[in-house]
Write a structure and sequence with these properties.
Helix content: over 70%
Number of domains: 1
Structural class: mainly alpha
Distance between the termini: 16 Å
Oligomer: single chain
Number of helices: 11
Number of strands: 0
Radius of gyration: 18 Å
Order of helices and strands: HHHHHHHHHHH
Strand content: under 5%
Length: 238
């Protein structure tokens, strides 16, 4: 058990270094280009998207049917990891089927992929949190899930900011806001959209939509699962 934990601790340190890495020149150029494009869009556009994504996220994140997962107790880290990877594998299959189905359905059905995939991702995070013994009935644990989500789907510059909070969670949770509406939803939706925009646009292209949808969804869920495991390892091993 100790040797397994030690190996995971080494992996964790490598991942932490990745999270702290400063944006590359290409990262900066890409982010600046995306910001310029966003600045050309009317503020009402951002407001409508922010409200829509906030409401979609809150429905899943705070819906009673998802807050009843019982945290697993008295398991080793190795046992927890095995369960977590099985759950990730299951959610990847679900996301691939969803992506293929919406990708094959053309523009209108393809647009439905956004809320469906968002729901799959957040449900996965609930499952992983309970596997590692964290109670998602706790409001702060649900906020932690949001920060994991941001780590996985944000620009490197924003990842640097979010990781500081996640890495020092024991201290940061003491000063957390009590009202979920105080969460920065505009940045949440903008970073997420910017991250997946190009891939999701390709999913709407006739003929290749189903293949792109399945592939992209598989990769996105796989990355989220990996990040979630590292984030909970950080709280257990540190």
């Amino acid at each position: 058990m100790q040797s397994y934990n030690y190996e995971k601790l080494k992996e964790l340190e490598n991942w932490k270094s990745k999270m702290r890495k400063k944006p590359s020149f290409i990262n900066k150029i890409s982010k600046k280009t995306q910001d310029n494009m966003n600045s050309m869009l009317p503020e009402n556009y951002h407001t409508v998207l922010t409200v829509a994504i906030k409401n979609m996220t809150k429905v899943v994140l705070f819906g009673s049917k998802y807050t009843t997962k019982k945290p697993l107790r008295d398991l080793s880290l190795e046992e927890r990891d095995k369960i977590a990877y099985e759950k990730i594998k299951l959610f990847k299959k679900t996301a691939m089927l969803e992506g293929a189905g919406t990708g094959a359905g053309g523009l209108l059905i393809g647009l439905a992929d956004f809320p469906l995939l968002l729901s799959i991702k957040l449900k996965l995070l609930y499952e992983v949190a309970s596997v590692y013994g964290f109670d998602t009935k706790d409001y702060k644990e649900r906020l932690y899930i949001l920060y994991i989500f941001q780590l996985a789907f944000s620009s490197q510059e924003y990842v640097n900011k979010v990781f500081k909070k996640v890495e020092a969670w024991d201290d940061f949770e003491d000063i957390l806001f009590d009202d979920i509406n105080e969460f920065n939803w505009k940045e949440f939706q903008q970073e997420y959209r910017d991250y997946i925009d190009i891939a999701k646009l390709l999913q709407l292209v006739p003929g290749i939509g189903a293949i792109v949808g399945a592939y992209v969804n598989n990769k996105l869920v796989d990355k989220l699962g990996e990040y979630a495991i590292h984030c909970y390892h950080m709280r257990i091993l540190d």
